[in-house]
């Protein structure tokens, strides 16, 4: 670098031309420009590029993780919805079966109650018939007694 500056000073001393002298300073300036770009690239641009690349990688990883989480959440939601639908179907089936069983029990109870009522009616009818027959027999005997008394009274006169 010092040699470069020394050469620049010698070249500038030797040629006292105008503003646009094309001598050894032009290649030297090009070399100086290239050296500065390499130094800037190493010192500033590479760390900035590294930070930007890390940031891009972090964003990519975050997006990948987020999309994987979203996909998993969608799968879980679908699974839970399927389980919920299946549970509803089972609950409806249980309710339907319970209603049918309750209907059967009610029908059986009604049938038993009807049979019991018919039996009670038949028993009451039979008892009434027995009481009627007893009353008729009692009346017959009383009629016989009364008719005998009437006949005796009529014959006694």
UniProtKB/TrEMBL annotation:
It is a single-pass membrane protein. It comes from the Eukaryota. It is found in: Cell membrane; Membrane. Keywords: ATP synthesis, Cell membrane, CF(0), Coiled coil, Hydrogen ion transport, Ion transport, Membrane, Plastid, Transmembrane, Transmembrane helix, Transport. One of its GO terms (cellular component) is proton-transporting ATP synthase complex. The chain crosses the membrane at residues 24-45. Pfam families: ATP-synt_B. Residues 114-149 form a coiled coil. SUPFAM superfamilies: F1F0 ATP synthase subunit B, membrane domain. GO terms for molecular function: proton-transporting ATP synthase activity, rotational mechanism; proton-transporting ATPase activity, rotational mechanism. NCBIfam families: PRK07353.1. Component of the F(0) channel, it forms part of the peripheral stalk, linking F(1) to F(0). The b'-subunit is a diverged and duplicated form of b found in plants and photosynthetic bacteria. PANTHER family: ATP SYNTHASE SUBUNIT B', CHLOROPLASTIC. Belongs to the ATPase B chain family. F-type ATPases have 2 components, F(1) - the catalytic core - and F(0) - the membrane proton channel. F(1) has five subunits: alpha(3), beta(3), gamma(1), delta(1), epsilon(1). F(0) has four main subunits: a(1), b(1), b'(1) and c(10-14). The alpha and beta chains form an alternating ring which encloses part of the gamma chain. F(1) is attached to F(0) by a central stalk formed by the gamma and epsilon chains, while a peripheral stalk is formed by the delta, b and b' chains. This is ATP synthase CF0 subunit II. It comes from Sphondylothamnion multifidum.
